[in-house]
Design a protein that fits this description.
The protein has 1 helix and 41 strands. Helix content is 1%, strand content 48%.
């Protein structure tokens, strides 16, 4: 599928270092002696499932209330990744996901599965939504059009899918009590389901199933949130299973980060095995890390450690270099649709935006609450720190409209424009908060304000998302795109985990009085120091 964006940086050949680094392309022989660094992707991609199809690797992640949901990343060497698509085109699970009569914050797309069925050359994604039904989507190409195959009236909680050697599809799922379901040959219904394991009380909670088969044995890979990983083994998909601990309280490869856990296992075309887990790294979210896996003679996996912990670096996988599209760079929204790096805060009102020669955002909501405003476009933040710069055409704004660039989470701030009485002001709005039930507790107040006479503005937010408390974002603006003026106080990011998703950059435009106004996002630039 043609890439639907203009990344001015162009293509970057897969290199022998992680995305946080960089460097020239190298030959396979040169890379054999090289290393990669963790995290391999310093962006918020949690609850990952990882598969290989031929010589291509795919990684799926949680997105909660963001739409489209369930992003898929693509790689050819397990280290350099690019955005490829979304498995859930729209959160078609009720009005609350539209920000229209309800809100779906911290609901939606949780830990889910991604797999590929060779017999019909089809990708399968499935996940339980709202602790109720399991929805399964399929596609011939992860970057193409996904369609809902079925809804099963049962919650396959934290599910993993196995396509067995005989083409039978199984799903492992559950929290503490682990079950296995067998699907019908068309994947639309459940044929059989039974409990296969009960977590011992001394282990606690196990969830986050991933389902594998190796050398005739079935494995269910489970996480103990948020500090352990265990694996079950059996000679039959329905058990009985025996358990081994894979890791517990393993030191993190990211200073200040949590214990690597959850995620999945994948075997390369050369026979090597890797474990792609994630690390809690708030305020930025949960970021993927990669480690080699070995197997004991009796068939149990072992993480390759460095000084007793998950390595900050490892030898580069024995895989060929291949071009991928950078996860940072410039988008000028040339159309005809948004690229896969973009997700809306809830489902957008598609009648209120157009892509082509910029992204035109008409006001879609009359509100004074950023969290209730539809059509807020979001982008993950690149760690450990990065800068987003947006160029906005303000000429079609109307009185009461508010537009700008936000640091978006359950505690938010933004820099932007307020138009009132025919005049524009550049404003820094902060102290925008949610309570523990994700209802708005404060719509915020102005921390800085200045008159602004132009019709075009450049807004900038720099975010430090290294794990820990006290991390800050700063804001600035420009009238010419060259000279930027620091504006207002720094904003301290909230690093609590309960919202699950990390901070994002958000571009918004909502009405305070009446619909009809618009802005055009001409350019978005995500850069690292």
């Amino acid at each position: 599928m043609a890439r639907r964006r203009t990344w001015i940086m162009g293509l970057v050949v897969a290199t022998a270092v992680a995305l946080a680094g960089g460097g020239p392309a190298q030959s396979v022989s040169a890379r054999a002696a090289a290393t990669y660094s963790n995290p391999v992707v310093w962006q918020d991609f949690a609850d990952g499932d990882i598969i290989r199809v031929g010589d291509t690797y795919y990684y799926s992640a949680s997105t909660m209330h963001y739409s489209p949901g369930a992003p898929v990343l693509r790689s050819y060497d397990l280290v350099n990744w690019e955005y490829a698509g979304h498995s859930v085109p729209r959160l078609d699970f009720g009005a609350k996901y539209d920000l229209n009569g309800g809100r779906g914050y911290v609901r939606g797309i949780w830990a889910s599965f991604l797999n590929y069925r060779k017999s019909n050359s089809t990708f399968y994604w499935g996940g339980c939504v709202d602790f109720a039904n399991t929805h399964i989507y399929t596609a011939a190409d992860v970057g193409g059009q996904w369609q809902k195959l079925t809804t099963i009236n049962k919650c396959y909680y934290d599910a993993g899918m196995l396509v067995d050697d005989n083409d039978t599809m199984y799903v492992s799922y559950g929290n503490t009590t682990i079950s296995v379901a067998q699907l019908s040959p068309d994947g639309k219904t459940e044929v059989r389901s039974q409990q296969v394991f009960s977590t011992p009380s001394n282990v606690g909670t196990l969830e986050g199933s991933r389902f594998y088969k190796r050398n005739g044995f079935y494995y269910i890979f489970l996480t103990r949130p948020a500090n352990g990983q265990y694996i079950l083994k059996a000679s039959n998909p329905f058990g009985p299973y025996t358990m081994q601990q894979v890791l517990l309280n393993m030191p993190s490869p990211i200073p200040g980060g949590g214990v690597p856990h959850q995620g999945g296992l994948v075997q390369t075309q050369n026979g090597d095995w890797y474990y792609m887990a994630f690390v809690d790294a708030y305020p930025g979210g949960r970021v993927p890390v990669l480690a080699p896996i070995t197997w004991t003679a009796d068939g149990w996996p072992r993480v390759t450690t460095v000084n007793g912990g998950w390595g900050a670096s490892y030898p580069f996988p024995n895989l060929p270099a291949h071009p991928v599209t950078p996860m940072t760079g410039v988008d000028t929204f040339t159309g005809p649709a948004l690229g896969p790096q973009w997700e809306w805060n809830h489902n957008p009102d598609t009648s209120k935006y157009t892509v082509g020669n910029g992204l035109r955002l008409q006001t879609a909501t009359v509100t004074n609450d950023l969290y209730s405003a539809r059509n807020t476009l979001t982008h993950r933040i690149q760690g450990p720190s990065s800068t987003a710069t947006v160029t906005l055409d303000l000429s079609a704004m109307r009185d009461g409209d508010r537009t700008g660039l936000a640091m978006l989470r359950d505690s938010s701030a933004w820099i932007g424009i307020k138009r009132d009485g025919g005049r524009n002001r550049v404003v820094l709005q902060n102290n925008i908060t949610m309570d523990g039930n994700w209802n708005t507790s404060n719509t915020g107040g102005e921390a800085a304000s200045a008159a602004f006479g132009g019709t075009k503005i450049w807004l900038r937010a720099n975010a430090d998302i290294r794990p820990g408390s006290g991390r800050q974002a700063t804001f600035s603006y420009s009238t010419d795109g060259v000279t930027f003026t620091r504006f207002g106080p720094a904003f301290t990011l909230n690093n609590a985990w309960q919202f699950f998703m990390g901070y994002r950059f958000g571009v918004f435009n909502y009405a305070g009085q009446a619909l009809g106004g618009a802005v055009t996002l001409q350019r978005f630039d995500l850069s690292t120091p």
